[in-house]
Amino acid sequence: xxxxDELISSHGSALVKQLAQxxxxxxxxxxxxIKEMLPTITKGVQRNSAxxxxxxxxxxxxxxxxxxxxxxxxxSLINADSIEDGNKILGHVLKSKDVSRNVAGQAAAATGxxxxxxxxxxxxxxxxxxxxxxxxxxxxxxxxxxxxxxxTSMLDADGDGSIADDVLDxxxxxx
Length: 175
Prior knowledge:
By secondary structure, this protein is mainly α. The protein has helices at residues 3-8, 13-23, 27-48, 52-63, 68-72, 80-94, 97-111, 115-140, 144-155, 164-172. The protein has one domain (3-172). The protein contains ten helices and no strands.
């Protein structure tokens, strides 16, 4: 199961419920917002982990287990330190506040929500995604091919076995 699926599945429904409650939204709209934001976050993770140094850094972060709490306890995402951690994750994977703003703007256009709400939600979604990756990494152990497969599955949003069309769709959102 991909990170996308895991974050919004029955296991991830705690995340959807927590964010919906935190932002006073319905769960369906919250789920759509998460679906809109995740591809860019995971693309950033993939881009950063494309080099061996980047992959080593990602593996260290995931192996630390520090982020797994976000997957295990979504209520922890509303804490100030979790939001700060989410902002650090965004800074690392997206490299620019402008990209974060664009992600929130695209999600706003897709959901009809105010982009200000989505800008607040984005670090929580980033932290949750990192938490789910950490949990999946722990389950896979230190198997590099399992990690590579996990990254590929994160980006294969439509489940067709190819990430090329999904990455192209993500890129189209920003041009």
